[in-house]
Design goal:
- The two termini are 16 Å apart.
- The model has no long low-confidence stretch (mean pLDDT 95).
- The chain is mainly alpha-helical.
- The chain is built from 14 helices and 2 strands; from the N terminus they run H-H-H-H-E-E-H-H-H-H-H-H-H-H-H-H.
- It has one domain: Farnesyl Diphosphate Synthase.
- Helices cover 75% and strands 1% of the residues.
- It binds geranylgeranyl diphosphate.
- The site of geranylgeranyl diphosphate has 16 residues, from helix 4, helix 8, helix 9 and helix 10.
Protein backbone atom coordinates (compact mmCIF):
# COMPACT_ATOMS: atom_id res chain seq x y z
CA UNK A 1 0.00 0.00 0.00
CA UNK A 2 1.32 3.48 -0.82
CA UNK A 3 2.12 5.91 1.97
CA UNK A 4 -0.74 8.16 0.86
CA UNK A 5 -3.24 5.30 0.97
CA UNK A 6 -2.07 4.44 4.48
CA UNK A 7 -2.47 8.04 5.59
CA UNK A 8 -5.94 8.19 4.03
CA UNK A 9 -6.97 4.99 5.79
CA UNK A 10 -5.82 6.42 9.11
CA UNK A 11 -7.86 9.56 8.49
CA UNK A 12 -10.89 7.46 7.51
CA UNK A 13 -10.70 5.39 10.71
CA UNK A 14 -10.34 8.55 12.81
CA UNK A 15 -13.26 10.32 11.07
CA UNK A 16 -15.57 7.30 11.28
CA UNK A 17 -14.98 7.02 15.04
CA UNK A 18 -15.84 10.73 15.41
CA UNK A 19 -18.94 10.38 13.23
CA UNK A 20 -20.15 7.72 15.68
CA UNK A 21 -19.89 10.31 18.46
CA UNK A 22 -21.91 12.89 16.56
CA UNK A 23 -24.71 10.85 15.03
CA UNK A 24 -27.66 9.75 17.18
CA UNK A 25 -27.90 6.02 17.91
CA UNK A 26 -30.68 4.05 16.26
CA UNK A 27 -32.03 2.92 19.64
CA UNK A 28 -33.63 6.35 19.89
CA UNK A 29 -37.31 6.74 19.01
CA UNK A 30 -38.40 6.35 16.25
CA UNK A 31 -35.51 4.02 15.31
CA UNK A 32 -36.26 3.97 11.56
CA UNK A 33 -35.00 7.52 10.89
CA UNK A 34 -31.76 6.97 12.78
CA UNK A 35 -31.25 3.66 10.99
CA UNK A 36 -31.79 5.35 7.61
CA UNK A 37 -29.38 8.19 8.45
CA UNK A 38 -26.71 5.77 9.67
CA UNK A 39 -27.21 3.41 6.72
CA UNK A 40 -25.87 5.96 4.22
CA UNK A 41 -23.46 7.72 6.56
CA UNK A 42 -21.63 4.47 7.34
CA UNK A 43 -21.73 3.06 3.82
CA UNK A 44 -18.00 3.53 3.31
CA UNK A 45 -17.41 6.82 1.51
CA UNK A 46 -13.91 8.14 0.93
CA UNK A 47 -14.41 10.84 3.65
CA UNK A 48 -12.57 13.36 1.48
CA UNK A 49 -14.33 16.47 2.68
CA UNK A 50 -13.85 15.88 6.43
CA UNK A 51 -10.29 14.79 5.70
CA UNK A 52 -9.73 18.12 3.99
CA UNK A 53 -11.19 20.11 6.89
CA UNK A 54 -8.86 18.40 9.36
CA UNK A 55 -5.77 18.34 7.15
CA UNK A 56 -6.20 22.03 6.27
CA UNK A 57 -6.64 22.93 9.94
CA UNK A 58 -3.43 21.09 10.85
CA UNK A 59 -1.53 22.43 7.84
CA UNK A 60 -1.90 26.01 9.09
CA UNK A 61 -0.94 25.06 12.64
CA UNK A 62 -4.40 24.42 14.14
CA UNK A 63 -5.55 21.68 16.49
CA UNK A 64 -7.37 18.90 14.64
CA UNK A 65 -9.73 18.32 17.61
CA UNK A 66 -11.21 21.78 17.05
CA UNK A 67 -12.00 20.83 13.48
CA UNK A 68 -13.79 17.57 14.32
CA UNK A 69 -17.40 18.83 14.67
CA UNK A 70 -17.07 20.75 11.40
CA UNK A 71 -15.46 17.79 9.63
CA UNK A 72 -18.31 15.51 10.76
CA UNK A 73 -20.87 18.12 9.71
CA UNK A 74 -19.29 18.28 6.23
CA UNK A 75 -19.61 14.51 5.82
CA UNK A 76 -23.23 14.57 6.98
CA UNK A 77 -24.11 17.33 4.52
CA UNK A 78 -22.30 15.47 1.74
CA UNK A 79 -24.15 12.24 2.58
CA UNK A 80 -27.50 14.05 2.65
CA UNK A 81 -26.77 15.42 -0.83
CA UNK A 82 -25.99 11.93 -2.14
CA UNK A 83 -29.21 10.49 -0.66
CA UNK A 84 -31.29 13.24 -2.27
CA UNK A 85 -29.38 13.10 -5.56
CA UNK A 86 -30.19 9.39 -5.87
CA UNK A 87 -33.96 9.86 -5.36
CA UNK A 88 -36.39 9.02 -8.19
CA UNK A 89 -37.14 12.75 -8.58
CA UNK A 90 -33.45 13.40 -9.24
CA UNK A 91 -31.03 10.79 -10.70
CA UNK A 92 -33.12 7.76 -9.72
CA UNK A 93 -30.10 5.58 -8.95
CA UNK A 94 -30.23 2.17 -7.29
CA UNK A 95 -26.67 1.91 -5.99
CA UNK A 96 -24.36 4.24 -4.11
CA UNK A 97 -21.20 3.55 -2.16
CA UNK A 98 -21.45 -0.06 -3.25
CA UNK A 99 -24.86 -0.73 -1.72
CA UNK A 100 -28.54 -0.11 -2.47
CA UNK A 101 -29.49 3.55 -2.30
CA UNK A 102 -31.31 4.85 0.75
CA UNK A 103 -34.75 5.07 -0.89
CA UNK A 104 -34.43 1.50 -2.21
CA UNK A 105 -34.07 0.25 1.37
CA UNK A 106 -36.16 2.67 3.41
CA UNK A 107 -38.59 4.08 0.84
CA UNK A 108 -38.65 7.50 -0.76
CA UNK A 109 -40.35 9.25 2.13
CA UNK A 110 -37.84 8.04 4.71
CA UNK A 111 -34.88 8.76 2.39
CA UNK A 112 -35.97 12.39 2.04
CA UNK A 113 -36.28 12.63 5.81
CA UNK A 114 -32.94 10.87 6.40
CA UNK A 115 -31.25 13.45 4.15
CA UNK A 116 -33.00 16.27 5.99
CA UNK A 117 -32.07 14.67 9.31
CA UNK A 118 -28.37 14.59 8.38
CA UNK A 119 -28.44 18.20 7.21
CA UNK A 120 -30.06 19.47 10.39
CA UNK A 121 -27.84 17.33 12.58
CA UNK A 122 -24.85 18.90 10.83
CA UNK A 123 -26.14 22.41 11.56
CA UNK A 124 -26.76 21.50 15.20
CA UNK A 125 -23.26 20.06 15.66
CA UNK A 126 -21.66 23.18 14.20
CA UNK A 127 -23.87 25.53 16.22
CA UNK A 128 -22.98 23.56 19.38
CA UNK A 129 -19.28 23.96 18.56
CA UNK A 130 -19.82 27.70 18.05
CA UNK A 131 -21.63 28.00 21.41
CA UNK A 132 -18.89 26.06 23.17
CA UNK A 133 -16.14 28.21 21.69
CA UNK A 134 -17.71 31.42 20.44
CA UNK A 135 -15.14 33.12 18.22
CA UNK A 136 -14.53 34.16 14.62
CA UNK A 137 -12.87 30.85 13.82
CA UNK A 138 -15.88 28.68 14.69
CA UNK A 139 -18.53 31.01 13.27
CA UNK A 140 -16.38 31.62 10.18
CA UNK A 141 -16.05 27.88 9.57
CA UNK A 142 -19.80 27.33 9.96
CA UNK A 143 -20.49 30.22 7.62
CA UNK A 144 -18.09 28.83 4.98
CA UNK A 145 -19.72 25.39 5.15
CA UNK A 146 -23.33 26.67 5.02
CA UNK A 147 -22.34 28.94 2.11
CA UNK A 148 -20.70 26.09 0.18
CA UNK A 149 -23.65 23.75 0.69
CA UNK A 150 -26.50 26.14 0.00
CA UNK A 151 -27.89 28.45 -2.66
CA UNK A 152 -24.48 29.98 -3.30
CA UNK A 153 -22.86 26.57 -3.77
CA UNK A 154 -23.80 22.91 -4.07
CA UNK A 155 -27.56 23.45 -4.06
CA UNK A 156 -27.58 26.01 -6.87
CA UNK A 157 -25.24 23.73 -8.87
CA UNK A 158 -27.76 20.95 -8.47
CA UNK A 159 -30.61 23.24 -9.52
CA UNK A 160 -28.87 24.18 -12.77
CA UNK A 161 -27.83 20.54 -13.32
CA UNK A 162 -31.45 19.42 -13.01
CA UNK A 163 -32.66 22.31 -15.17
CA UNK A 164 -30.39 21.34 -18.06
CA UNK A 165 -31.29 17.64 -18.09
CA UNK A 166 -32.10 16.66 -21.67
CA UNK A 167 -31.02 20.09 -22.97
CA UNK A 168 -27.85 21.24 -24.69
CA UNK A 169 -25.54 23.43 -22.68
CA UNK A 170 -22.33 25.35 -23.32
CA UNK A 171 -18.99 25.09 -21.54
CA UNK A 172 -19.68 28.14 -19.41
CA UNK A 173 -22.87 26.63 -18.00
CA UNK A 174 -21.19 23.29 -17.41
CA UNK A 175 -18.39 25.04 -15.52
CA UNK A 176 -21.01 26.83 -13.42
CA UNK A 177 -22.53 23.45 -12.54
CA UNK A 178 -19.17 21.85 -11.67
CA UNK A 179 -17.92 24.87 -9.70
CA UNK A 180 -21.08 24.89 -7.60
CA UNK A 181 -22.36 21.32 -7.43
CA UNK A 182 -19.00 19.70 -6.71
CA UNK A 183 -16.24 22.23 -6.13
CA UNK A 184 -18.11 24.45 -3.64
CA UNK A 185 -18.11 21.71 -0.98
CA UNK A 186 -14.43 20.91 -1.49
CA UNK A 187 -13.62 24.60 -1.42
CA UNK A 188 -15.71 24.97 1.77
CA UNK A 189 -13.93 22.06 3.44
CA UNK A 190 -10.46 23.49 2.83
CA UNK A 191 -11.54 27.03 3.65
CA UNK A 192 -13.25 25.98 6.89
CA UNK A 193 -10.16 24.02 7.95
CA UNK A 194 -7.87 26.98 7.26
CA UNK A 195 -10.20 29.33 9.16
CA UNK A 196 -10.33 26.97 12.15
CA UNK A 197 -6.55 26.69 12.13
CA UNK A 198 -6.25 30.47 12.40
CA UNK A 199 -4.79 31.20 8.95
CA UNK A 200 -4.58 34.73 7.57
CA UNK A 201 -7.13 35.98 5.02
CA UNK A 202 -4.52 35.60 2.25
CA UNK A 203 -3.80 31.98 3.13
CA UNK A 204 -7.51 31.19 3.53
CA UNK A 205 -8.01 32.59 0.01
CA UNK A 206 -5.31 30.26 -1.31
CA UNK A 207 -6.95 27.22 0.30
CA UNK A 208 -10.28 28.24 -1.23
CA UNK A 209 -8.74 28.69 -4.68
CA UNK A 210 -7.00 25.32 -4.50
CA UNK A 211 -10.35 23.81 -3.43
CA UNK A 212 -12.13 25.19 -6.46
CA UNK A 213 -9.50 23.83 -8.84
CA UNK A 214 -9.45 20.42 -7.14
CA UNK A 215 -13.25 20.29 -7.12
CA UNK A 216 -13.63 21.00 -10.82
CA UNK A 217 -10.82 18.57 -11.74
CA UNK A 218 -12.43 15.94 -9.47
CA UNK A 219 -15.78 16.38 -11.23
CA UNK A 220 -14.20 16.21 -14.70
CA UNK A 221 -12.61 12.91 -13.63
CA UNK A 222 -16.05 11.79 -12.39
CA UNK A 223 -17.46 12.59 -15.86
CA UNK A 224 -14.66 10.57 -17.49
CA UNK A 225 -15.00 7.63 -15.09
CA UNK A 226 -18.74 7.52 -15.75
CA UNK A 227 -17.87 6.28 -19.25
CA UNK A 228 -14.55 4.47 -18.69
CA UNK A 229 -14.91 2.69 -15.34
CA UNK A 230 -17.05 -0.15 -13.98
CA UNK A 231 -19.78 -0.30 -11.37
CA UNK A 232 -17.56 -2.55 -9.20
CA UNK A 233 -14.79 0.06 -9.16
CA UNK A 234 -17.05 3.04 -8.56
CA UNK A 235 -19.65 1.50 -6.25
CA UNK A 236 -22.36 3.25 -8.28
CA UNK A 237 -23.84 2.74 -11.73
CA UNK A 238 -21.85 3.85 -14.76
CA UNK A 239 -23.34 5.69 -17.75
CA UNK A 240 -25.51 7.48 -15.23
CA UNK A 241 -25.06 10.85 -17.00
CA UNK A 242 -26.22 9.40 -20.30
CA UNK A 243 -29.22 7.78 -18.60
CA UNK A 244 -30.18 11.11 -17.08
CA UNK A 245 -29.52 12.98 -20.33
CA UNK A 246 -26.85 15.10 -18.66
CA UNK A 247 -24.18 16.76 -20.76
CA UNK A 248 -20.69 16.29 -19.35
CA UNK A 249 -17.12 17.37 -20.07
CA UNK A 250 -16.72 14.20 -22.12
CA UNK A 251 -19.65 15.20 -24.35
CA UNK A 252 -18.33 18.71 -24.83
CA UNK A 253 -14.58 18.09 -25.15
CA UNK A 254 -13.97 14.32 -25.50
CA UNK A 255 -12.00 12.13 -23.08
CA UNK A 256 -8.46 13.24 -23.94
CA UNK A 257 -9.12 16.98 -23.86
CA UNK A 258 -11.13 16.56 -20.62
CA UNK A 259 -8.20 14.73 -19.05
CA UNK A 260 -5.88 17.54 -20.14
CA UNK A 261 -8.10 20.19 -18.55
CA UNK A 262 -8.32 18.18 -15.31
CA UNK A 263 -4.51 17.77 -15.25
CA UNK A 264 -3.97 21.49 -15.75
CA UNK A 265 -6.33 22.34 -12.87
CA UNK A 266 -4.69 19.71 -10.72
CA UNK A 267 -1.21 21.11 -11.45
CA UNK A 268 -2.40 24.62 -10.59
CA UNK A 269 -3.77 23.38 -7.26
CA UNK A 270 -0.54 21.52 -6.54
CA UNK A 271 1.46 24.67 -7.24
CA UNK A 272 -0.56 26.39 -4.50
CA UNK A 273 0.30 23.60 -2.02
CA UNK A 274 3.97 23.80 -3.02
CA UNK A 275 3.99 27.54 -2.46
CA UNK A 276 2.41 27.09 0.99
CA UNK A 277 5.19 24.74 2.06
CA UNK A 278 5.71 21.25 3.39
CA UNK A 279 2.87 21.42 5.92
CA UNK A 280 0.63 21.02 2.85
CA UNK A 281 2.41 17.90 1.56
CA UNK A 282 -0.50 15.59 2.43
CA UNK A 283 -2.96 17.89 0.67
CA UNK A 284 -0.65 17.99 -2.34
CA UNK A 285 -0.44 14.20 -2.55
CA UNK A 286 -4.19 13.91 -2.02
CA UNK A 287 -4.81 16.40 -4.83
CA UNK A 288 -2.64 14.44 -7.23
CA UNK A 289 -4.35 11.18 -6.30
CA UNK A 290 -7.90 12.57 -6.61
CA UNK A 291 -7.49 14.50 -9.81
CA UNK A 292 -5.50 11.95 -11.77
CA UNK A 293 -7.16 8.76 -10.48
CA UNK A 294 -8.21 6.07 -12.91
CA UNK A 295 -11.14 4.78 -10.81
C1 LIG B 1 -29.33 17.16 -3.59
C2 LIG B 1 -28.75 19.55 -2.98
C3 LIG B 1 -28.38 18.28 -3.60
C4 LIG B 1 -27.19 18.20 -4.19
C5 LIG B 1 -26.64 17.00 -4.79
C6 LIG B 1 -23.39 16.01 -4.44
C7 LIG B 1 -24.50 16.10 -5.39
C8 LIG B 1 -25.33 17.33 -5.40
C9 LIG B 1 -24.82 15.10 -6.20
C10 LIG B 1 -24.12 13.81 -6.18
C11 LIG B 1 -23.80 13.33 -7.55
C12 LIG B 1 -22.52 13.82 -8.04
C13 LIG B 1 -21.91 13.16 -9.21
C14 LIG B 1 -21.94 14.82 -7.46
C15 LIG B 1 -20.69 15.34 -7.85
C16 LIG B 1 -19.77 15.25 -6.72
C17 LIG B 1 -19.31 13.87 -6.51
C18 LIG B 1 -18.38 13.28 -7.49
C19 LIG B 1 -19.77 13.25 -5.45
C20 LIG B 1 -19.27 11.97 -4.98
O1 LIG B 1 -18.27 12.30 -4.07
P1 LIG B 1 -17.24 11.23 -3.53
O2 LIG B 1 -16.59 10.55 -4.68
O3 LIG B 1 -18.22 10.21 -2.82
O4 LIG B 1 -16.36 11.89 -2.54
P2 LIG B 1 -17.99 9.28 -1.53
O5 LIG B 1 -19.07 8.24 -1.62
O6 LIG B 1 -16.61 8.69 -1.58
O7 LIG B 1 -18.17 10.17 -0.35
Amino acid sequence: MTELKEQMNQWIAYIEAKLEDFIPKQEQFPPIIFEAMRYSLFAGGKRLRPMMVLAACEAVGGDREEGVPFACAMEMIHTYSLIHDDLPAMDNDDYRRGRLTNHKVFGEDMAILAGDGLLHNAMEIMADACCLNPCQKTTGAMQAIAHGAGIHGMLVGQVVDVFYEGKTLDGKTLDFIHINKTAAMICAALKAGAILGGATETVIGKFALAGEKIGVAFQILDDILDVTSTMEELGKPIHSDEKNEKKTYVDLYGIEKSREIACKLSDEAMAIWLELGESCDFLRDLTEYLTKRTY
